[in-house]
């Protein structure tokens, strides 16, 4: 909660009749607030972060455009892990339970949040959904955010890693167009590399553009279709889930 | 596009902070918006009057201050300096911490308590 300092402004009334007396008319005040607009969300996100720490869970928040391949990346990764890492997924979509069903088909528990009209998940929705998962037997928890590269960057969900998922089909200048998404993330996964020859994209240039915004990004170059790079991503998850 | 829910959050924060002045009229609300906060200032300006409807904040003017991305560097004396990306604008080191530009903050309000 912001500290309050009440300062008084002197406002003089300059109507001709008042000019002679120039009586100060004290009725305008300025209240300093300094309150983060998303402080309520941030508070809940901090609860989630504490809960994850207590239970030894690594939380990852996946953001990316609709269709960038977030669910396919998870499916391929879970198939590769083949039960070696206890994962769970919170799925966020505007509508349908399709992604939850796709994840469960790989043997990993999932819970679906349907946001109806909202373009992002917030911490309150995630906190509620967590009660449906067996957190005591989870090491690595993914939150697949609603497909959107702008709005999702504003909301902390209590994750340790924010992962940005971008497909080669989206073009190599995406990082330069959406820098705020890249300054909020720690991990970049480039997907659908099998499509690179068809979409005239320079993957190295895409990576370079992303690193020019955020040089500390851990980068993975993957194809869920061919399985390229999935092992590296899975190994990273094993490393951070100890 | 979630600027309407952001605008609603702003109105709620203003209401909480004017409880001691139930009869006051809010002249203006000053909000600092980081260039990397994920918020579009135009959309926010558009949504603000809608969020104010049927609240004591109705009629208030939204003043936006755009806050650029700023970092402090771990590898040189740079502190709180404007930058375009997550590296030091002087020594180019990637070991920086963001000090401004990612948040959205309700800074202050002007009330008419006449
Ligand atoms: N060729 C190819 N297609 C992919 C790949 N990953 C995902 N897709 C396709 O891209 C579409 C969107 O994928 P999805 O995982 O649903 O994206 P999400 O909206 O980010 O979860 C689907 O039709 C996938 O089959 C890939 O690595 N290669
Ligand atoms: Mg999906
Ligand atoms: Zn430096």
Detailed description of the structure:
The complex is a heterodimer of chains A (242) and B (114). By secondary structure, chain A is of the alpha/beta class. Chain A has a single domain (39-240), classed as Rossmann fold (3-Layer(aba) Sandwich). Helices cover 33% and strands 25% of the residues of chain A. The longest helix of chain A is centred in the N-terminal third of the chain and has 17 residues, at 39-55. The two termini of chain A are 36 Å apart. In chain A, 43% of the residues are buried. Mean pLDDT of chain A is 90; it is low at 1-23. In chain B, helix 1 (3-17) crosses helix 2. The mean pLDDT of chain B is 95. Chain B is α+β, with helices and mostly antiparallel strands and 114 residues long. Chain B has a domain at 3-68 and 101-112: hypothetical protein PF0899 fold (2-Layer Sandwich), CATH 3.30.2320. A 3-stranded mixed β-sheet of chain B has the order 2-1-6, covered by helices on one side. Chain B has a 3-stranded antiparallel β-sheet with strand order 4-3-5, with no helix packed on it. In chain B, helix 2 (41-52) links the parallel strand 1 and strand 2. Chain B has helices at residues 3-17, 41-52, and strands at 25-34, 61-67, 70-73, 81-82, 96-100, 104-112. Strand 2 (24-36) of chain A pairs antiparallel with strand 6 of chain B, so a sheet runs across the interface. The complex binds guanosine-5'-diphosphate, magnesium ion and zinc ion. Magnesium ion binds next to helix 2 of chain A.
The major β-sheet of chain B equals: 3 strands, mixed
Please state the oligomeric state of the protein chains shown. heterodimer
Give the strand line-up of the largest sheet of chain B: 2-1-6
Q: Give the largest chain-chain interface (CB within 8 Å).
A: A-B, 34 and 40 residues
**CATH structural fold name of the domain at 3-68 and 101-112 in chain B:** hypothetical protein PF0899 fold
From the 3D structure, determine the CATH topology of chain A: Rossmann fold
| Mean pLDDT across all amino acids of chain A | 90
Q: How would you describe the shape of chain B?
A: elongated
Strand order of the largest sheet of chain A: 5-4-6-3-7-8-9
Mass-distribution shape of chain A: globular
User: What is the CATH homology-level superfamily of chain A?
Assistant: P-loop containing nucleotide triphosphate hydrolases
Work out the radius of gyration of chain A.
24 Å
Sequence of secondary-structure elements of chain A: EEHEHEHEHEEHHEHHEH
Helix content of chain B: 10-25%
